[in-house]
Design a protein that fits this description.
Elements lengths: L2 E6 L21 E4 L2 H8 L3 E7 L14 H8 L1
Antiparallel strand pairs: 1-2, 1-3
């Protein structure tokens, strides 16, 4: 599941999905799962996306492409 970093719109507090006692404020971004609850809050303007956090994927190491000069030298 994707994670979002959200913040409440300026001057507002927005309740969290599972913790009504700790609302999201307009000062500190909070990481939340992209559940239908938070998507609705973003759609109605109560929350603003501060940052989209994508799941990390393994990075493949690639060999640098040979330069044109190296190719000419190999051809000789």
């Amino acid at each position: 599941m994707r994670t979002l970093r959200v913040i409440a719109k300026e001057g507002c507090l927005c309740p969290r999905e599972n913790r009504k006692d700790a609302p999201i404020d307009d000062k500190t971004p909070v990481e939340v799962d992209s559940t239908p609850y938070y998507i609705r809050r973003i759609s109605d303007g109560s929350l603003v996306i501060a940052e989209l956090i994508l799941p990390s994927a393994p990075v493949k190491e690639s060999k640098p492409a040979p330069s044109a000069k190296a190719n000419k030298e190999e051809a000789k």
